[in-house]
Amino acid sequence: MRRSERKQADPDLGILIARVLFGLQREMSRELRTDKSGPGPRHGAVLAYLDEEGSRATDLAAQSGQHKQVIGTLVDDLVAMGYVERRPDPSDRRAKLVVPTERGLDMMRRSDEVVAAIERRYAQAVGEEEFAVFKATLRKLAELQVTSDATT
Amino acid sequence: MRRSERKQADPDLGILIARVLFGLQREMSRELRTDKSGPGPRHGAVLAYLDEEGSRATDLAAQSGQHKQVIGTLVDDLVAMGYVERRPDPSDRRAKLVVPTERGLDMMRRSDEVVAAIERRYAQAVGEEEFAVFKATLRKLAELQVTSDATT
């Protein structure tokens, strides 16, 4: 059997996870009607975790698992696109907060809704209980990942 | 509760899937010792499916779910890095095959081994049975994704 046939018959974890994530990202772009001039999947590292009240870049880095430089670049993009602003942190004037604009708040609300709708559809497709079990295992694997990254 | 706290307490599917995929990609880069001049995660769309005997670009596009233009760009990169060659297809001289070089074959073997090792570690961490159930559900969701993409 050819390697590609083997992988179609028994896809490995990397293939399956990538397929689900890219499908999810495509659906989000479609639903949120973002074009090339708007935020893309990589800006999720900021927009997925950003607080309505604003967040520090270091917190966004820790939450998303991205380097602080990467977060800085993504925030620069989002500032240029009008989704966030950098403001002095009221609790520490030397620190900066990344604060969503009205447009950013709207995008955050809508993307949370789209993900929730996708989850509901998945749960219907495989059954509520199977989906809950799946998500619990996925969460264990995600936490495993965080731990093994921290030790290297 | 702040949005970021809510998401830490109950992370959504997008967050969890991205965390597992990026962890997996980081581990592969580390194990395969690829640097910035070598293939990156995005080249997985070609290297994950490529046949030892060579594959047509259209098949790689269908298997990975990427556009044919994207595959063309990734193949250009891999040709430049010495991992694949474009050769005439012996079964149709007007068509081209993407054929792995020795270096490409070695990378394909090693990355398949690394993914298999990660799967074994995950299975040990959550238990063989829970991991098998997880992978079965993940596969259903991946196939759901392919179907819903095809209809849009």
What does this structure look like?
- The structure is a homodimer of 152-residue chains.
- Chain A is mostly helical.
- Chain A has a single domain, classed as Winged helix-like DNA-binding domain superfamily/Winged helix DNA-binding domain (Arc Repressor Mutant, subunit A).
- Chain A has seven helices and two strands; from the N terminus they run H-H-H-H-H-E-E-H-H.
- Chain A has helices at 3-9, 13-32, 44-47, 57-64, 68-80, 102-126, 128-150; strands at 84-89, 92-100.
- In chain A, strands 1-2 form a two-stranded antiparallel sheet.
- In chain A, helix 4 (57-64) crosses helix 5 (68-80) and helix 6 (102-126) crosses helix 7 (128-150).
- The termini of chain A are far apart.
- The interface between A and B is large, with 60 and 60 residues.
Quick recap:
Chain A contains 7 helices and 2 strands; from the N terminus they run αααααββαα.
Q: What's the arrangement of secondary structure elements?
A:
Two copies of one chain form a homodimer.
Chain A: H1 3-9, H2 13-32, H3 44-47, H4 57-64, H5 68-80, E1 84-89, E2 92-100, H6 102-126, H7 128-150
Antiparallel strand pairs in A: 1-2
Helix pairs in contact in A: 2-6, 4-5, 6-7
